[in-house]
Amino acid sequence: MSTAQNVKTHPAVLQAQNKANYYVGQLDKELSKYPVFNSFEQRTQVPKSYAFLGGVVLLLVFHSINAFASPVSNLLGWALPAYLSVKAIESPGHNDDVQWLTYWVVFGFFNFVESFALRALLYYLPWYFAFKSVFIVWLQLPSTRGAASLYATVVKPVFANVSAKSSNGTTSTAYPDASVADTLRDRAAFATHE
User: Which residue ranges of the chain lie beneath pLDDT 70?
Assistant: First the structure.
């Protein structure tokens, strides 16, 4: 028996193939829930799970060698959400407004935090922008509700903590005259209702 034949029939290789086939099957079941992947598979005759995995690998390779990985990643985080935000503003319902407002708060918070740690992230994680792009898509998708869950678990507690600290006695120390603080608060409330 040749060496190649020995490798193909080795129990570890067979076990790895079985696990890979299992996970590809699970991915195929998950992707079958989305009509776009079913349509793609029917038109191209390429299994949707292979196309999806190929797209992920292509994204990783593209981002690892591309000098424009950061702008492309930020464009991905801005272009489609900006378009859908404008559509949400123009629509009569409020559910899409909440989704996109939540997305922009989380995206802005993430970019703010990223600005402090980008050099370290790129040093320890060279494919950072590929992961960031996948993360941004996760935030955007209504089916994953990534922005809403991250808002509830990270952003909201941070802002609640900051708000609680700033409301503890700030008005009495910053504005000795309470009427000045009330006037400023009334002006801010009026400005938000215009």
Answer: 1, 60-66, 169-194
SS3 of the chain: CCHHHHHHCCHHHHHHHHHHHHHHHHHHHHHCCCHHHHHHHHHHCCCHHHHHHHHHHHHHHHHHHCCCHHHHHHHHHHHHHHHHHHHHHHCCCCHHHHHHHHHHHHHHHHHHHHHHHHHHHHHHCCCHHHHHHHHHHHHHCCCCCHHHHHHHHHHHHHHHHHHHHHHCCHHHHHCCCHHHHHHHHHHHHHHHHC
The full set of domain ranges for the chain reads 10-65, 67-153
Reported as a single tens digit per residue, the pLDDT across 57-73 is 777 666 666 677 788 88
